[in-house]
Design goal:
It is a single chain. The protein is an alpha+beta fold and 252 residues long. It has three domains: 115 residues, 2-Layer Sandwich (GMP Synthetase, Chain A, domain 3), CATH 3.30.300; 65 residues, no CATH class; 50 residues, SH3 type barrels (Roll). It has eight helices and eleven strands. The strands form three sheets. Strands 10-9-8-7-11 form a five-stranded antiparallel β-sheet. The chain has a three-stranded antiparallel β-sheet with strand order 2-1-3, with no helix packed on it. The radius of gyration is 29 Å and the shape is elongated.
Amino acid sequence: MIKTDHGLEPAHLVDVAPPCMCSERPRLASFEVVRELTEEEKDRYAHLVEQEKQAHAICATLIGKHELEMRLVRVEKFFNGSKMIFYFTADNRVDFRNLVKDLVQEFRTRVEMRQVGVRHETKMLGGLGTCGRELCCASFIKKFDSVSIKMAKEQDLPLNPSKISGLCNRLLCCLTYEYDTYRRQRKGMPKVGKKIKLGEEYFLVRRQNPLQESIVVSNEKGEDALLHKEQWQECETLKTERPVRKEKKVKE
């Protein structure tokens, strides 16, 4: 049994992968183990999942009865039976007051309706990602960070929505993992589209390879070449002249 905000809850202790060798700080658990389950608690816990499934079916029937535009995702019942939480998704606000009355009358306990987004829905349902592993949100992510298309551009990923989106149809959470590394590696590298001078030759930067710390350039003849870090560090970046804007004469 572990200590939670609403009382004691059962939990499984499982073997996990060893911590990353690059981190010297120990991994701290976010809960406190109190004691082992009693035989009576084991029996209650064995029937808890079945009770949640039954509650899900009953609530789904009542949603159809009240003709509410909402999708029930999951039902969570506290181990001590003091409360039940019904998670759902909806495009707009839903008036579920009559639904709550019917649920309270059916289960004789406190009922809470909690609307969640598509990311949290996917976290609850779980699944496998395009990498073949369990979804990050379902395995270890506790807080969703903001993800932008800029992160995909920074990592030279294809901007095809089907390739950089997860099961929730939102941008992949893993786009944030290496974003800072790519930004750090690109710092100081000649930018794409800039003209550089190496010795007596002039080049145009075509592409950056941050992980290899190299750049692809083309010379005045249009021939491509690969410059490594020790080479492009000796380059001189040429300033691009900006076109002079002509000021419009104001008629008096």
